Amino acid sequence: MHDLLILGSGSAGVAAGIEASNLGAKIAVIEDGTIGGTCVNVGCVPSKTLLRAAEANHRANGSSFAGVKPKGSDLDFGAIIEQKTALVEDLREHKYTDVLESVGVPLIRGRARFTGKHTLEVGGEAYEAKRFLIATGAAPTLPPIPGLRESKPWTYVDALSPEEQPESMLVIGGGPIGLELAQAYARLGTRVTVLEALPHILSGEEEQVSEELRAYLEDEGISVHTGTRVSHVDFGARYRVSAEIEGVERSFEADRLLVATGRRPRTEELGLAVAGIRLSPGGAVEVGPNMATSNPAVYAAGDVAGLPQFVYVAAQSGRIAARNALADGKEPLDLTALPRVTFTGPAVAAVGLSEREARASHDDVRVSVMQMDQVPRALAAFDTRGFVKLVADSEGRILGLHVLAPEAGELIQEGILAVKFGLNYRDLIDTYHPYLTAVEALRLAAQGFDIDVKLLSCCA
Question: What are the E-state strand segments in 294-423?
């Protein structure tokens, strides 16, 4: 009998497998598809590779420096996809297949289905374990728009491995996935239109972030429409999307249609009801703070458990679930200082409370906004897009950090530590920040609580 059987070989499952193996448990990972899950195969790795390729092409065709005159690029879209695919295959082998083998975790091939509260079968073979961990991830889903499913649109999976680059593309969904792929294709030469149902793109971010990013995207030629109610999709020689915007009926056409409106937990055909495992109203496996399900013998982690859909959350929840499952532990998953990054150009990153959230939960809130045109690094790079926003309580404790800037994901880490450990903005002021680095923007934003930084010398 196994101590732990893990369903799924993505980030949550493999992290759990490594953790359980290090604890000396007898375990196995069950996988019926491609090993590695979303991140390495159809998520983080391929999308960010495509984004970097698109950025390289974008830079080859434009410069902010007077003495640098780009001469364009010799774009080979097929070669970009081939290089991306080779990287994915390499990482899948070395970071998943080889890692499981190196820690002695066997991989059972086939689809798992619970046959009882302590048993399941894979390919007709029965397995019994003391504990189970469901880590089957999530998959793209399509909204119930008439004609949409029949038109067979792209999801992000299709957009990362196309046979050819479309001349034009419609994107339904102005969230992180939709915007990243929209900008990547636009920078590679595709004419792109984004249709978002909500009043703002990146609706989970500060409104100022959403509005300024929209302006930057439109400056690059991307057409962005918000408050859009898509009513019908037709497909003939091209895709035709009918929509209502501010009470006016509009029609949009393109060679390709990409739908990026959400993902659903992979729970179908797992026999969860037989095992006494409850699902949330959204279809995710219902878990408690320690990742346990309604069946004491079964735990869940990652996207299938309805957690924030980030690979680092999946991995951390997998490790915690494995520890708790093997020791009947109560260790909770702490999401207090959870960062998020959207890899557009400029990028968006945030951690902690927004200004609105802070004002709803605190009597007195202080805010400092530092435009990047006050940051020496940005001035020297002739790229002053964006800003840094710090949110603090009445005593100066940092509650949140919001960044719109090139490489915002690299700037957010200091804010993560500040929120996690309850630092005061004065702690940032009194910490050395190397001059002419982008992260100096955080110190300047902290100083902005007390003084107009325009009155400071370069290094003051």
Answer: 298-300, 339-342, 347-352, 365-371, 387-393, 398-405
Cα 334 off chain centre by: 18
- Please give the Cα distance from 115 to 298 (Å, whole number): 13
H-run or E-run covering 231: strand 228-235
What is the DSSP secondary-structure string of 28-53? EEEESS-TTHHHHHHSHHHHHHHHHH
Sheet holding 347-352, edge to edge: 339-342, 347-352, 398-405, 387-393, 365-371
pLDDT in tens, 21-74: 999 999 999 999 999 999 999 999 999 999 999 999 999 999 999 999 999 999
pTM of the model: 0.96
Largest CA-CA distance found in the chain, in angstroms, rounded? 74
Q: d(Cα 19, Cα 12) in Å, to the nearest integer?
A: 11
Take residue 18 and report the two structure tokens written for it.
Answer: 């490594």
Per DSSP, 65 falls in state S
Query: Which residues make Cβ contacts (< 8 Å) with residue 354, sequence separation at least 6?
Result: 205, 206, 391, 400, 402
Give the start-end residues of each E strand in 35-177: 107-109, 112-114, 119-122, 125-134, 138-140, 168-172
Query: Could you give the domains of the chain?
Result: 2-140+264-327 (3.50.50.60), 148-261 (3.50.50.60), 339-455 (3.30.390.30)
What is the Cα–Cα distance from 397 to 394, expressed in whole angstroms? 8
